[in-house]
Design goal:
212 residues, mainly alpha, DNA-binding, homodimer
Chain lengths: 212, 212
DNA sequence: GCATATAATGAACATAGATTCACAGACTGA
DNA sequence: TCAGTCTGTGAATCTATGTTCATTATATGC
């Protein structure tokens, strides 16, 4: 599931280096997700990665670079999946269902960090997130407008409630965030599949235009 | 609008002390709202308040206490208004409209900090917010359940779409957050009143049960 | 097995920022 | 005007944490 690089045929040294790099990044992701950027210390990350502090600096210039790398890679992964599973969908209703599944899956895989991904890249309370890399911002923007167009089609076809497409997108985001946030607070015992089903039912009840 | 204490008839010394205390708290609110807890320095706050660093410590034990005070007071204010304007409302639809207005008003008055208030007290990305004072948490919990009951009535009466009341509450929260977040990113030129109107229309389109 | 290159290490260093405290100024009552 | 008290001050202190680098360990090629 994670973004395995094409490790193929590289010199073994190179492969190991990349593997270590990734291990560090993944450890960092876990720590950042727990404590946020400023709340996390390089030592914590080193410990989680089972390397010495100095070693991290053989792979990354600074704590900040490490954070940006983690964030950027996460966003790219997520957006790739988004393009594939959501934007690739013809039927607007299926597209919405796909968004829901994707979001929940990401939450499940990346726990805390997922919050950042499809959440509007608002500087969370100012400090938690540093600036997103500009490229990532651009990609997010594109994805959002593309999705809005999908919703537009749904509205035009009369399947979705006719509030503006942009507002509809915002509402969907918000609802997803709200549920995800809840699940982050008290881990539900309900298995993933059921959560998705319930969420889908809820959301569709709201946004589908009822037959008169 | 703010939580003016009953300054009445106290010895002047006392009144001045309280005034200073409040000035500091208000300055802190602005700085915290801009930079988050860890992102803000005591010196910044001192500067904003136009006092020396040491002076702050004559009024508050620590940076942390200062933060908690700001947060707690904000929450109390907000919840008082919530009880009055929302829970006091008979008609469930009017109650929802009141929530919308309140939320937008709070945003307008407290800019960044408002995000924290009615947002489920999820440790925002882990570090931004310290633990809320337990009393505040309890109050928030009460307000939420009370509001859920209002929605319940609306569902029972057949005016709201019949997803569970708790889920409906979550959706409302989410949608409000989404719009507020948008407005925090790019300040809309639209005046407050219009924003409220548009938001109300959008939300009601979603949650009102359509006549068949 | 040795010499060299590469990677890992963690103690030492530098800095930022929270907290303290000895001092200065302002006010009070006589 | 003066002693006494209270308030405000900001330089000095202490601590936490990001970053560096001399040293040690490991791997590679001969």
């Amino acid at each position: 599931m994670g973004g395995e690089e094409p490790t193929q045929g590289l010199p073994r040294k190179e492969r190991e280096r990349l593997a270590h790099r990734r291990e560090i990044a993944e450890a960092a992701e876990r720590v950042f997700a727990r404590n946020g950027y400023r709340g996390s210390t390089v030592e914590q990350i080193a410990q989680e990665a089972e390397f010495a502090v100095g070693t991290l600096y053989n792979f990354f210039q600074s704590k900040e670079e490490l954070y940006e790398e983690v964030l950027a890679s996460l966003i790219e992964q997520a957006l790739a999946l988004f393009g594939e599973r959501v934007l690739g969908e013809e039927d607007p209703v299926k597209a919405v269902e796909a968004v829901i599944e994707l979001r929940v899956a990401l939450l499940d895989e990346h726990k805390g960090f997922a919050r950042v991904v499809f959440q509007t890249p608002l500087a969370e309370h100012g400090d938690a997130s540093l600036a997103l890399p500009p490229r990532a911002l651009a990609l997010i923007g594109e994805a959002q407008t593309a999705f809005t167009q999908v919703l537009e089609r749904g509205i035009a076809a009369g399947v979705f409630v006719d509030i503006g497409a942009a507002d509809l997108a915002a509402c969907l985001q918000g609802i997803l965030n709200a549920f995800v946030a809840q699940w982050l607070i008290h881990e539900p015992q309900e298995p993933l599949a059921e959560r998705v089903a319930r969420l889908r039912k809820t959301i569709l009840s709201l946004i589908l235009r009822k037959k008169s």
